[in-house]
Amino acid sequence: MDSSKKNSVYSKTDTNKVDLKNDEWAKILPKDVYTIARQKGTERPFTGQFWDSNEGGTYYCAACGNPLFESNAKFDSSCGWPSFFEPIKKDSLVYKPDNSYGMKRTEVECGRCGAHLGHVFEDGPPPTGLRYCINSVILDFEKAKEAEKKFDEDAGKSK
Ligand code: FE
User: Fold this and answer.
1) Taking ligand 1, which is a single-atom ion, which protein residues have CB atoms under 5 Å away?
2) How many whole angstroms from its chain centre is CA 39?
């Protein structure tokens, strides 16, 4: 599917906030995405598409297309979920206290559409010391095609 036309609100460039009711989201999101995004679900560790990925590119919100993380902020946390030490922009995300399941955690939501993404923990690497632990299901990845091409060309020149 053309990812730029995933649903009526999906856009990688529109920064206007998206405010839909859950029954509206249910109509336009795949069931697995809806479960994570709107019902705060969690995929099983080591099962997602991206926990073990090292490809260069950008991760977007799978519900609304908001740019969330760059691959150069991704690190191998071995926790079974894709982990990042910082978002693309401060307002890419919003933070909510989460005291469910008897734990004190900080929930991370998409700054544009409010989709549940995962949690942030204070045991990440420098420079931030943070670990954004994010469900693969709610991420859309776009490979840095142009950047990669340029790198390959430059590498070719210097040989
Ligand atoms: Fe979103």
Assistant:
1) 61, 63-64, 66, 110, 112-113, 115
2) 16
